[in-house]
Amino acid sequence: MKVKVSRKAHFNAAHRLYRRDWSFERNEATFGKCNNPKYHGHNYDLIVSVTGEIDAETGYVMDMKVLKDLIKEEVENAMDHKNLNEEVPEFQNLNPTAENIAVVIFNKLRPHIDSSKELEVVLYETPRNFVTYSG
Ligand code: NI
To answer: Residues 39-60: pLDDT tens digits?
Structure first.
């Protein structure tokens, strides 16, 4: 019997979507306002879900306090109130789209979660736009 448990988190961050190897015009045509050289910000909402068997002794799939602290350490401390392009090493050469941010978050969390459990990351860049990655 597998159960999915989820934890919501939140962070604010700035980014710019562009490629250094493209002209400004091509970046503008592809990324529009998101190519603003002065950056712009989003209020990101994150839902991290872990699916697995309920532990017979604790009754938990995963201790939510542990998951909360893990998200704080790996995601919020690394990305909250940061300029993703300039301050988060993973985006040095990776466009910080919602898709790529979700994959980076997944890859940061995955090693810390028991391999018998499934991990899923849902990242809302706006209330209406969100992406899902589960490896
Ligand atoms: Ni944006």
So the answer is: 999 999 999 999 999 999 999 9
Can you give the pLDDT at residue 74? 98
Distance 10 CA to ligand 1 centre (A): 16
CA of 4 to the centre of ligand 1 (A): 30
Q: Tally the C-alpha atoms within 13 A of residue 71's C-alpha that lie toward its C-beta.
A: 24
Q: Which domain holds residue 56?
A: 2-133
Distance 34 CA to ligand 1 centre (A): 5
**Token pair of 83 as six digits:** 């300029």
For residue 89, how many other CB atoms are within 10 A of its CB? 9
CATH number assigned to the domain comprising residue 56: 3.30.479.10
112 classed as catalytic? no
